[in-house]
Structure formats: C-alpha cells, structure tokens
Amino acid sequence: MHDQEPPPASGTAQDSATQPAAPLNPAQLRRITSLHRGFTYQNLYAVGCLLRLRQAGAQTLLMELDEDLEVVLPDRYLYLQVKTRQNNLMWSDIRGSVDQFAKLRAEHTAGRRPGTPKLVVVSNTAPGPDLLQRTQQPGWQADVSLLWPGHPDPQETWLPPAAADLTGVLQWCTEQAAQVPFGSLGAQTLVWKLAARIQYASAGAHGRALHASELPALYEQFVEELQAFPRVPDVYWPHGSEPELTGEQRVRLVTGFSGAGKTTWAAHAAARCPLPVTYFDAGQMPPAVVPGALAREVAARHLSGPDAVSLPSGAGIDVLRAVHGRLAHDGTAIAVVIDNVHDLPSDDVRLLVQALPTARITLLGHPHPEQTALAAHLGVSAESLPGWDTDTVAAVFAAEDCTLDYPTAQRVLALTAGLPLYVLNSAALIRTLYAGDGAAFCAAVQEQTHLAPTAQERILAETFGHLSVLARTMAGLMAIAEVPLSSPELQQLAAAAGPTRPAAAAGAVRELAGLGLVQTFADGFAKLHDAAAPLALHASHDLPEEAARRVEQTLADLLEGHRELPRLARWMRLLADTGQIDLLLEITSQEGFYEGGFPRELRTVIADVAQEPGRDAVDRLDAHSALATWAYGDTDWDAYARHVHAMEALVSEGGSGIGPREKVLVATRQFPLHGHTGDIEALDAAFRTALAELPAPSSLERALRYGYVQGLYHSGSYRAAGPAALELADAYCDHLGLPPADLHGPIEALQQACLDSETPDDYKRLADCFAMHVKCCRQLKLDYGSAAFPAMKLYMITGAWRSAVDLGQDVVETLLGVNEVQAALSLIDRQLLPITQAYNLPELIVGLRSHRAVVLARTGDIAAARAEIRSLTQYEPTPAQADDIREQASIIEELAAQQAQGHP
Length: 904
Hints:
Layout: H1 13-17, H2 26-56, E1 60-63, E2 69-72, E3 76-83, H3 91-109, E4 116-123, H4 129-135, E5 144-147, H5 166-177, H6 187-202, E6 209-211, H7 215-226, E7 251-255, H8 262-270, E8 277-281, H9 290-302, H10 306-309, H11 317-330, E9 335-339, H12 346-355, E10 360-365, H13 371-378, H14 390-399, H15 406-416, H16 420-433, H17 438-446, H18 455-465, H19 469-481, H20 487-497, H21 502-514, E11 518-520, E12 526-528, H22 533-540, H23 545-559, H24 565-577, H25 581-588, H26 602-610, H27 617-633, H28 637-653, H29 660-677, H30 680-693, H31 700-714, H32 718-736, H33 740-743, H34 747-756, H35 761-780, H36 788-797, H37 801-817, H38 821-838, H39 845-858, H40 862-872, H41 879-900
C-alpha cells in the first residue's frame, strides 16, 4: 500500500526524550505494520459495505468465514477477498481464492448454499499485465471479477470503490457516514465505531454476522448519542423581533428556505425554554422509522430504568404513544423540536403531533406545497423567522472586517432577505472578491454580472429546477415587476409575455407560493420573495426580446398613476428603459421629486440627456437642473457649479422654448452658487436682473424671492435671510388664504386645504420659507419658537418626506426644550423613522437614530442610548455622520454623568 509513515510530531525536549528507540528488527516491524495495515484496510472496506448494505438490498454481512467478507442478498451470494499490495496484483496472489471459489460454487450448484455465487477480489492496486490478460481470456469465469481503484464492478455497482491506501478508503467511508441521518456525531468517529464492531464480529462475536434487519437498531444506538441540537455559534446574531421557541399555541410550524437559520434559532431559543427540549431531525429518514426513532429519543431523554426497558418492542407510532403515556402519567411536560418536517408526508407529521397531545411541539421545515394543508389540519398558521435586520447585517459585516454604510446594508438586506446563511456568504464574497466594496457586489448581483455564485443561488437553484415552465416564467415576470401586483395585473403581465390563460397564470403563482418563492398578502397582492429575486431575474432572461419589451411596456402602463413610492420608483425606471425620457424629465421638474428615495440610477439617464447635442434645449436645461439639484443635495458644489454654468450657456444660446420659466429656473440655481462663493454683489445683481425680466404680475416672483433668500443663507447672511424668509412666508399665506391659526391647527384640516388648492405646490414652498427661518435661527443659535411645527406638517401633507424628517428633528429639539421628552421620542419612533423606511431615505437614518439616542438618554435610559450608538458604530459613516455620532455620544455621556451625580 502507499500510506507513508507520518513525520514525528514536533515538541519539547522532554517529548523527544520519551520517543521509543529504533526497533532491533526493522524487518519484523515492516511485516507487522503491513499485516495491521491490511487488516485495517479490510475492516474499513467492510464498514463501507455496511454503510451501503441497505442500499444494496442485502440481508447479511459475514466476516472471516470462507472469505474475508461475504454478502448475502435475496438472489445472490458474494464472496469478497480483500487484498492490499505494494505492487501490482499478481495471479499468484489470488490463485488460492479462485481455486477455493470453485468448491464454493459447487456447494451453491448442489443447493447446499443459497443464491448465485460470485467472487469479487478487491485490491488497492491494479492487476499486473499477466493477471489482466488472464481475465480477458475466454476461459475466465464470468462469476469472478476484480475491483481496483478506478475500476468498479460492472454488476455490483453498490460495492464501495477500492482505494489506493488507508487514507482513501477512510475518506470514502467518512463521506458515506456523513450521509447517515443524525450525523451530528463526527462522521469519522462513526466510521471507527463501526470498524470496531466489524473487528469484534471478525473475532467470532455475534456469529461473525451483521444483519440488515439489525441496522436500524444499530444506528438507533448511535442516534441516541447524536440527537442533540447543533452547536450554537459562539457569537449568535438574533433575528429581528426574535420569537421564543414555544408560542401561545401548542404546535408551531416555522418554515423558511435552507439557510434561514431555523435550526440555529431553535437551538438558541431552547436555552431559554422553561421546558426540557428534545431535538429530533427527521431529515432524510425513511418515514416509516421516524415515529419509533422519535419515541426512543424522547424515552432516552426523559425515561430511565424499568420505564424505558418495559416500553413495547418494535418501532412505530404505538411506541411513541406509549412513551407519551408514561410522561403524561408522571406529569412530565416537555417541548419537542422536529426538524426537516418537509421530508415527511403531511399525514405522518399529523400522526406525530397527535401522538404527543400534551407536548409543546415546534416543527421546522422548508416551504413545500403541502404546507398549507398541513397548517390547516393542525389548526395553526405557518410562520417564518423575521431574518436579520439592518443593524445585524452591519454587525455581521463589521465582524468580517468589511464595514458597510447604511444604504448598502439595506441593499444587502434586500438582496438576501436577511437570511443568515445568505448574509454571511455575501460578507465572505464581498471581503474576498470585491475588496470590501459592498455596493459593487450589490450592483453586480442586481445586474447579474457577478461571477462567483452566491449561497442563495446554489440553494434555491434546486427549487427552481423543479418548477414548471410557466411557474419559472411567472417568477421571472415578478422579478421584473419588483413590486407587489394584484391577480389581474399578474395575468396582464403573463399575457404580455405570451398567450396564457388566466387560470394557468394563477396556478403558476400558487405553485410558487407553495414553495415559499412568492409571498401573498391579505389585500390580494403577491410579491416574489426577496431571496428568490436574483435567481428569478436570471430566469427572466429566457424571454424573447420582443416579449421582454411587451412586458416592460405593460408593466409601465400598470404602474402609471400610482403614488406609492415602490411603484412610482419602479415606474420611473421603466420610463428610462422604455425610452419615455420626456415624461421622466417632466417628473424630475416637480417640487417633490427629490424628497423621496427615488432610484439613483436615473441620474445616469438624465446625465445622458443633458449631454445629448440633438436634444431640445429645454430638455437639456431641465436635465442639468435635475443634476444640479442632486449635486446640491450631496453638497457637491463643484458638480453643482458645472450644471448651473451649462444651464446659463443654454439660456444664452436662446434656443426654442427658452422663456420666463427657464430663466427663473436658471436664476434660482445661480443664487445658491453666488451665496456659496460669498459673492453678495453677484447675488444681488442676478436677483435684480431676473426680477426685471419677469412679466408683472407673475407667480414665479415668489419662487425667485425664495431663491434669493437661499443665496443669502449660503453666503452666511443668516440675519438677513431669516426675516426675509418669514416675510415671504406671509406672502404665501396671503396668496393661499391661510390664517396663522390654520398652520398650528389639526394637520387634517391643513391637508384638506392643500388638496382643494389650485396651487398645491405652494404649500411646499411655504414650508420651505418656515424651514429657512428655522435653519437661520439654528445657525445663529436663536430660539425659533414653534416655526418648525408648521414646516414639518406642511412638508408631510405635500409629500416632501426628506424635508419633513429634517424639520421633524427641529420639532424634536423644540419638544425637548419644553421637557416633553416622551413626545419627542414618540415623534421619532412613530413618524420620522417610519417615513425614512417607507420612502427609502436610508441616508437620513444614521443621523436620526443618533438624535434618538440622545432623546433616550434624556428619558433616563442611558443603557438604551449607548446601545443605539453602538449599533450605529457598526456602519461605515460619512465624515458628517461620524462627527454627529461622536457629538451625540459625548452628550449622552454628559447626561450619564449628571444622572450619576443625582441631577435630573
């Protein structure tokens, strides 16, 4: 054989001193080593046969009788001679076995032994030329075969392959042992246990036989040792709003894709469960043996002595009922976790639950078509774990030395649905293949340009492989849609892809829902599961080009006119994809466009329009205006200046369509730039010029005046800008007919007035004026009174969500100033944070939450405040966010010191 002696282990001088001396007779040592190596190889090969015995349908494995190993099958009888050689196998090595087999064959022919006999010589080396030539002669007996590495027996394909050395046969057996149900015991440990059992039988124990009928009991002996929860990781990351192991109902059905963390959650939750918990993994077990195996496991855990011994013999549901009867008689309450229930027929699962009528049972499994019926029969609703939240995603990545900013953490969350294995795999890929660039990874996965497959793709590919063609198509269509769609909308989308009956489309959605790939909602809408989206998007590429265009146009038509942000954002991207650029430009010119978290990829489309020479001058000017607004929001003054100068050039050229609106637009973009550069003279001149060119009267005058105030603000002229903003606010109130009392009254009345107005955008501009006054006061460290309240309310009723959050934080400060701490916390938790989530404003969340941490400290909850700050430090902050976190953390520690000294 080719196994080499291992090198001596390195150690201390004392270790070296205890090493055995060289043998006096090296030749004898080599003979003994070879002898034991041969027996070990034979025993391991026997272990391989034992692990494959049931697969072969064999009845018995015999050791050291007429041959090394003998296998009794229903219709045949195998004799296995196991040979280990350093060189090629020779005819002289097997001549004795072949001659003896002739006598054995005669015994079978005479009927004194059952079955058709066959001799298989298993060798760790290939046959030599002479032996190989003999096997190819016509006179070679057909019932004698050779098996060597790379050359399996053509008939007995179940036999373990021959390996060249002990390492190879051990590795193969270990791989097979890992497939034995309940493999939480180390696979190699199981191999050595079986090898010991083989060696014991070879010495004459148990009639030198192991029977197939004994294998379930043999494995059950090991199962009793194996059946324990998998080890919980040293660092356990909880799911968002993680539930306890047992709920209000006796039975709980928790489903999720592989990688959702169900088993790890159950193992962690079991430590907090007030009842003793039995874990049982039904995965890959024959359904018939599950009740008995579960019964033995529960008995081993909770019964002892005569109680366990006197249980009914055999296996099955009756044994499980008997175990429960003993426990109920003793008043022992237990909890049971049954894992991988999707591998069992639903009726079998019901029987298990019914056999344990007082136990608290948690069923874990993958989504499957029978799940709905199973839940109905059990009288429960299937649950799924919430998955990790954004903070946990950030913490996991930070632990991998791969930090994410908040928006990227949310993108990872959306791509992985927060499923633990998928998040961990994404972190590993980003660290190793994307140099820590999470945004690049997310973009690659969304665009399907990544090269390394993700864990969720590998896991879900099997599920997708079993889908019908129509279900796969529907999954692709729902991936294109991205947003929840109603049944009629899905049917229209399916019809656009190709002729499809409505019933067939609905059936395909039900097929996807049965496998957990589609989530259905109470309002009748359905959406593809986030975790399935990348794979389903790949499936959508199978659509013919013309069909794909029809689908996009149909989807655009379906989404047009909807104001919900997800649908509106998806519609705008479709406008770009379908070439409806004029409509997209019209949307970007609206007041509230920049107040929501609309897709950043639209910038590329708008930038292309701005640079397109053949485009209408007004279109190009509007495009540059949009790009300038984005740059302003990013405080990128260099980019802002470039776009403003491009707008000036377009107006100077005087193209068709350049009128008062366009000139005012350019002026309002010039004012902040002049203010930022501190050129007050240029600011005043530009304002006077723009005002003189306006026809009188003009509704554009108020917009022009606000732009001028904005310029004053950026020049640092806060004492001039603040009062001017309030004066302009009065003008807007007069124009809108709004008395001051309405601004501080119920928001519902203000909202109705806005809806009834002929110029609803002016309500947002009025909010801008109040907001400008607040900002100036903030810079001057002056009290702005209640001015932030109407600004926040006006922003909310006009859908200016970004500004609503900004001014909302000023309202929080106002409330803190009058010691309304709980009201301030409620405003953040119930309005401002939900706005950032609902309207995709992740870049605001870090600042808002650091503010929230201070409010928590003001309530006296220093521990919660510190925990909030710690959560934020897991993210990769912008410089401004980092400064803000440090400042807020400092305030919290000051408050903590005051509380420690007994000051309120």
